[in-house]
Automatic annotation (TrEMBL):
Ranges that cross the membrane: none
GO cellular component term of the entry, any: SCF ubiquitin ligase complex
SMART domains: LRR_CC
Organism name: Arachis hypogaea (Peanut)
Name the UniProt record assigns to this protein: F-box/LRR-repeat protein
Domain of life: Eukaryota
Length: 505
């Protein structure tokens, strides 16, 4: 297949990434479907030509440059101190020394996720914000159980992120057990939290979001959160200790809207405990030991709109039950042993906006069943048996925004059927080795494209002229084609002003 496509979902390595790399951007098997990330808040000093910066902007910029000259910002209004703090974090200029200037500043948000050097010595100043502190992100830090003890003075804390904090154990959870106002708690990738330690969470009665992804010791501990009736989002992905018995306590979480249990040992029986979750709209079962028989239970979930069954044991047998999930908007069936026979039962799912059939045994005829899906915006058909004829059935998807057909048998004739999809913004046709410059000519009218990948094809430098009309293009990938970086740069400089990423480069 070659390395240019880089499209297949990849399993996370169980080894921790290097500390020098931001772990929030690590790939996961379901990254394309459900994921979240945290970004540093920042003050934007980029002004349009001719604009004059405000006095406040100039002051914050100057303070950031001369931070070592200041001992305390406690006399400043809180919102100004907050902006100074955010700017220091964004520019990587905050140190344990300069942090002291923010003691008793009543800051509300301290986003220090993945910030270098954060440890227990920072916690005294952090806790000095007292009842004003609402949100703290310490992910990837060296804070220990002792450091967490400082947070007991921040009784109004609403959000606490402790992802990848390797030195926090059950004892650390005891330190935050009194923070009953917490609505969001994230403890991803923690080997030290046990089922017994989970009992401490039972007192956090206002929790709305709980993230325990990659916590391998929590089997049997979910019983302690069954009383958290305000919980709306629960993430226990990649906890391979989770079994069917862990599902029963979840039946009490009547407000649950999002549940992620991918790569666990849960089977169809475990899924049966979810029948009563009438508000559940997102369910991630990627890599679980379920078959199409689980659809009997899922049919009792009236609001289910996002369903991930990627890499499960789904076959054509029992697929007729998909027709009962009429409210589905996002469906991932990638890497399952299904054929066109299964697609016939998806015909009635006319609310679908995103459908992934990656590496399924889908052919041209099966796509006839998708012809009436006018709401479809994202379609993945990579490594299927879909060819030129099948694309003809897609010509009436006027709302389609993203189309991926990698590693297929497409030719220039098939690509002609794509040119009618005027709303396309992302198009990936890599690994179709028979495509030539004529394909670029066919898609030259797709002026909304922002991302195009035609790697491992017969595209040449001569064909680049057809891309001149794609003024919105930001990413262009033509690896293993007969094009040069020089010609792509020339095209960018003269016709594609928004192109920021291209290969070869």
């Amino acid at each position: 297949m070659g390395g240019a496509c880089s499209r297949k979902p990849e399993r996370d390595s169980e080894d921790s990434p290097c500390r020098g790399l931001s772990r929030r951007f690590c790939k996961s098997g379901s990254l394309k479907w459900w994921t979240s990330s945290f970004a540093y808040p920042s003050v934007d000093f980029h002004l349009r030509k001719g604009d004059c910066p405000s006095l406040l902007e100039l002051c914050i910029k100057k303070i950031n440059e001369d931070i070592d000259r200041y001992n305390s910002f406690s006399m400043l209004p809180r919102d100004i101190s907050q902006q100074i703090f955010n700017k220091l974090v964004c520019s990587q200029r905050l140190t344990s020394v300069s942090l002291e200037a923010f003691r008793d500043c009543a800051l509300q948000d301290l986003d220090l996720g993945e910030y270098a050097g954060v440890n227990d010595s920072w916690m005294d100043v952090i806790s000095s914000q007292g009842s004003s502190l609402l949100s703290v992100d310490l992910s990837g830090s060296d804070v220990t159980d002792f450091g967490l003890s400082y947070l007991k003075y921040c009784e109004n804390l609403l959000s606490l992120n402790l992802n990848y904090c390797d030195q926090i154990s059950d004892h650390g959870l005891e330190c935050i057990s009194g923070l009953s106002n917490l609505t969001s708690l994230s403890l991803r990738r923690n080997d030290s939290i046990s089922a017994q330690g989970m009992s401490i969470l039972s007192g956090l009665v206002n929790l709305v979001k709980l993230d325990l992804e990659r916590c391998p010791g929590i089997h049997g501990g979910l019983v302690h959160i069954q009383g958290l009736t305000k919980l709306q989002s629960l993430n226990i992905k990649w906890c391979n200790c989770i079994t069917d018995s862990d599902m029963k306590p979840l039946s009490e979480l009547v407000c649950l809207e999002s549940l992620e249990i991918s790569c666990s040992k849960v089977t169809n029986f475990g899924i049966s405990f979810l029948k009563g979750l009438q508000k559940l709209s997102l369910l991630n079962l990627e890599g679980c030991l379920v078959t199409a028989a689980c659809l009997d239970s899922l049919a009792d979930l009236p609001l289910l709109s996002n369903l991930n069954l990627n890499r499960c044991n789904i076959t054509d047998d029992g697929c007729e039950k998909f027709s009962r999930l009429e409210n589905l908007k996002v469906l991932n069936l990638g890497f399952n042993d299904i054929t066109d026979a299964c697609l016939a039962h998806l015909k009635v799912l006319t609310k679908l906006e995103s459908l992934n059939l990656d590496s399924c045994r889908i052919g041209d005829e099966g796509l006839i069943n998708l012809a009436g899906h006018r709401q479809l915006k994202c379609l993945v058909l990579s490594d299927t048996e879909v060819g030129d004829t099948g694309l003809h059935h897609l010509s009436e998807f006027k709302n389609l925004r993203s189309l991926e057909i990698c590693g297929g048998g497409l030719t220039d004739a098939g690509v002609k059927n794509i040119r009618a999809l005027s709303c396309l913004m992302c198009l990936n046709l890599s690994q179709n080795c028979n495509l030539t410059d004529k394909s670029l000519e066919s898609i030259s009218g797709l002026t909304r494209l922002i991302s195009l990948n035609v790697s491992n094809s017969r595209i040449t430098n001569s064909g680049l002229q057809h891309l001149r009309t794609l003024k919105n293009l930001r990413s262009l990938t033509l690896e293993s084609c007969k094009v040069t970086a020089y010609d792509i740069k020339k095209l960018r400089s003269t016709h594609l002003p928004n192109l920021v990423s291209f290969r070869p480069e």
